[in-house]
Amino acid sequence: MMQIRAGTAADPAGGDAALEVSTRGVTPRVWYFRPQRDGDFGRLLMEGGLITAEFGVRADLSEHYEPGQILDAVTEANPHEARSRIRSMSTQLNALVNEMQPGDLVLCALPGAPRFGIGQVGPGLAEDPDGRPARSLRWLRDPIPRDAVLSDLLTVTGSYVPITEVTRPGILDRLRGLIRDGRDPGPTGPLLTGPASLEALIAAETARIRDRIGAVFTGHAMAELTGALLRAQGLTVQVGTPGPDGGVDLIAGGGPLGLAPPRLVGQVKSGLQVAGDETLQALIGNLHGSGADAALIVSWSGLTRQARARAQGMGFRLRVWDAEEILRLYLDLQDRLPDGIRSRVRVETRALHRLLD
Q1: What CATH number does the domain located at 15-181 have?
Q2: What pLDDT, on the 0 to 100 scale, is given for residue 304?
Q3: What is the DSSP letter of 25?
Q4: Of 22, 214, 246, 257, which is most buried with the most CB atoms under 10 A?
Q5: Which class would CATH give 216-356?
Q6: Rounded distance between C-alpha atoms, residue 247 and residue 285, angstroms
Q7: What would the pLDDT profile of 220-270 be if each residue is shown by its tens digit?
Q8: Which residue intervals of the chain bear CATH 3.40.1350.10?
Q9: Per-residue confidence at 185, pLDDT binned at 50, 70, 90?
Q10: CB under 8 Å to 354, separation ≥6 — which residues?
């Protein structure tokens, strides 16, 4: 199988030219493409730089400029499909034919090893060997391993549809970083530049650090950060292993063995997960069953209204850490956190501390 190299496919140019990811002053859009498993779509991507999918259409769509025209073409090609399926396929095909523009960037899941390719959409429509409408890509760099992409951006790769637009803030800068360095720089947020009030500068720098923490510490990593924050406050902590946890992600307590009060059980939710009443109820059950003194629920995106009401009724026996509380603790305790935690954030906080002094 052909190896992807920068500059292959539609255009032989690569290297520094690949970083010029704007077209005629128009900001490019960013897409994610996942080849369908049924068929040879992975091979077409790897060998020909073609992105396409099975929509049943084998026709020239170069003059189908309106979504309604695409819908008609998909309907005609799939007379026995359900209406909902027809609409889903026509939305995908319209994105491929009309919404993607030359110069747009496409993050592609590559078949085989867990890697991504980044390509730039070429001019005009293409066609695969079976007559499916397609778009051609110029690869902008060699493949990137999956672990070079931060967890928050990896969430878009779970899409069940082959073509998805990625609209999260700062995505273009992040892909530029991947193209240039082979590493996701993460959501850096606004920099402290230009005239602004002290309050605006503090808010901007704080948001930058918060966004970085939220992007880096997802899944089990958020439990590791929680454990580090508790250890920095003098507790002995055991963080569970990734996978099913029965409602407890960590336990903590005082003393060298973690057996002295306060003894805690903790549950951790990261990313966009909002902890609901079912999660909280399971944690409360573990609190009562374990003989712990208190429970800690860590939810980066907060609690549902029902769960928050239940948490407030627990009084001194339960505490909630959301994004703002985790950020506050990180800033207060960072000098006591291990280098492995601080190096993952990679955001300079001294500027913020100077503003706060």
Answers
A1: 3.10.590
A2: 92
A3: T
A4: 214
A5: alpha beta
A6: 9
A7: 999 999 999 999 999 999 999 887 767 799 999 999 999 999 999 999 998
A8: 216-356
A9: confident
A10: none
